[in-house]
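ok so i was messing around last nite and threw this chain in just to see what happens. nothing serious, just curious
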Amino acid sequence: MGENQMALPHKLTLNERRSLSMTGVTEVVNFDENTVVLRTQLGTLIIHGQSLQLKTLAPEGGHVEVEGSIAALHYEEPRAAGWLRRLLG
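result:
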């Protein structure tokens, strides 16, 4: 995301496990029909499911929409923050 662009807050809206709309996405890391990996302002978000498709990708505003059969959403903590947290205890 460019320095002059205003990032939207990270927000998720899941409708009937078939449609996921979100803001605050900074990067699409990887996607296929079973997994979508997104970097967000709050950590890496991994979406698991079947027949997943990216329907909307608007990187300038951080808006992404995923459709398909969504089975699970999982956040990974940012690695630097986890390491720093362990170091500082």
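not much to say yet. The mean pLDDT is 85.
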